[in-house]
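To the wet lab folks,

You asked to see what we're planning to order before we commit. Fair enough. Below is the target structure as tokens, and below that is the sequence we designed to fit it. If anything looks off to you, flag it before the synthesis order goes out.
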């Protein structure tokens, strides 16, 4: 099965607000080339404009503090006699400065999102339950931990805890003159005389599998900054990209015009790329690693003028966006003045070719994010023949919360926009050719050399 790809674009910092927003949408339009998700839900019949309710056996009168899929695992442990095991979780601590109360001011001031006393109390309780705390995210009001699955409900009773989610796996979701024209970016560049609309001075954080900084499309030089900073959240090198996805995305975003007479140049060649590796050599990662990277971006946004985050990755939408920890991290970034662009996913049809609805992955279900679906341009520069790619994930969103024993789905309309999403040629990392788990080794037809 062919992999798909995804992208974004950023205007010059000197733009007016109108020009800035127009450029931003062009940025988002050109990043849906490698959309990814992990086994996104397959929901065929939904109601799009009102909450759908499904009654469950339990009859609690209040909203559950435990994520639905985690609750199911706990139920199976007790009801089916399954063996206990260590569970990795993400804990949202209660916070007086909630996202509804002056969120941007709180984030910008650097105030911790959760009381340190509450964090210490939770850490102490984890120890009493045979678990341990691992990491805390200062801008998110979250912490990661591991403890016996059998103790989850006891932990949830703690008054300092707002919500507990499993540390879910995330996976990659799968200037070229063609997409310059078909997205309208070329027209935008010529609209303002004397303005260099290539994203100069803007920092874009690419959360992906790393970037091959030695590739000629991404080497710095002249007015092409390329990759200005790299950091790994996986324990592997951020500058090799053994999986191959991050390099592809980065070159579509900011590939140099000096390579092959700009035949494969990126849509925003003047941006500074901040390379944050959150996926491993097989394109897999964790929710906690992605959150850690977003937390780093918020903390360092001023140093690199980071105005955009691109996340071409996802995990099945289980929680409502209100409780989903990755969505909450994206929301914090939004409140800090950062635009977050996310791929919708590749789960628009099943193995038999049937259309699937309700398959948008997290964090693409987050309302504050620009969620980008994939379009098929059929290789032409004009748009009259463009169509939604059959593999592109479709809404409405199917994250949910349980209130009084009842499932309440979000049912938000997503994706927000679409952009060219298949058969686009971009950079391939050198190290991915030697990795049996990489994109090109799994799909040799993608290697066009």
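Sequence we intend to order:
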């Amino acid at each position: 099965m062919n992999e798909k790809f995804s992208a974004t674009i950023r205007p010059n910092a000197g733009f007016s607000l109108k020009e800035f927003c127009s450029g931003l949408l062009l940025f988002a339009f050109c990043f849906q080339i490698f959309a990814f998700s992990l086994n996104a839900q397959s929901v065929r019949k939904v109601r799009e404009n009102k909450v759908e309710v499904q009654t469950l056996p339990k009859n609690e009168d209040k909203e559950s503090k435990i994520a639905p899929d985690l609750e199911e695992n706990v139920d199976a442990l007790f009801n089916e006699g399954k063996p206990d095991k260590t569970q990795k979780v993400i804990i949202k601590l209660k916070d007086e400065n909630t996202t509804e109360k002056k969120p941007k001011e709180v984030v910008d001031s650097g105030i911790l999102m959760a009381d340190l006393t509450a964090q210490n109390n939770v850490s102490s309780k984890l120890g009493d339950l045979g678990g341990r705390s691992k990491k805390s995210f200062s801008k998110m009001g979250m912490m990661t931990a591991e403890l016996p699955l059998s103790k989850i409900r006891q932990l949830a009773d703690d008054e300092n805890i707002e919500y507990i989610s499993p540390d879910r796996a995330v996976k990659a979701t799968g200037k070229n003159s063609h997409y310059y024209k078909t997205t309208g970016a070329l027209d935008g560049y010529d609209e303002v005389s004397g303005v260099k609309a290539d994203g100069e001075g803007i920092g874009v954080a690419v959360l992906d599998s790393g970037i091959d900084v030695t590739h000629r499309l991404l080497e710095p030089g002249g007015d092409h900054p390329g990759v200005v900073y790299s950091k790994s959240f996986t324990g592997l090198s951020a500058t090799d990209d053994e999986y191959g996805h991050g390099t592809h995305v980065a070159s579509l975003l900011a590939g140099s015009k000096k390579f092959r007479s700009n035949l494969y140049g990126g849509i925003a060649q003047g941006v500074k790329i901040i390379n944050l590796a959150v996926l491993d050599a097989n394109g897999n990662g964790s929710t906690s690693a992605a959150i850690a990277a977003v937390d780093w971006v918020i903390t360092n946004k001023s140093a690199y003028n980071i105005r955009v985050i691109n996340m071409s990755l996802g995990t099945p939408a289980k929680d409502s966006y209100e409780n989903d920890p990755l969505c909450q991290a994206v929301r914090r970034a939004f409140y800090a003045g950062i635009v977050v662009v996310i791929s919708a996913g590749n789960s628009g049809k099943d193995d038999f070719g049937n259309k699937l609805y309700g398959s948008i992955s997290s964090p693409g279900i987050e309302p504050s994010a620009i969620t980008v679906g994939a379009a098929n341009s059929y290789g032409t520069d004009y748009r009259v023949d463009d169509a939604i790619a059959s593999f592109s994930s479709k809404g409405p969103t199917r994250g949910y919360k349980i209130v009084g024993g009842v499932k309440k789905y979000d049912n938000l309309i997503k994706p927000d926009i679409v952009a060219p999403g298949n058969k686009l040629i971009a950079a391939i990392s050198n190290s991915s050719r030697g990795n049996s788990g990489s994109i090109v080794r799994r799909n040799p037809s993608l290697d066009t050399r």
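Structural context that might help your review: The two ends are 19 Å apart (CA to CA). The longest strand covers residues 86-93.

Thanks,
Computational group
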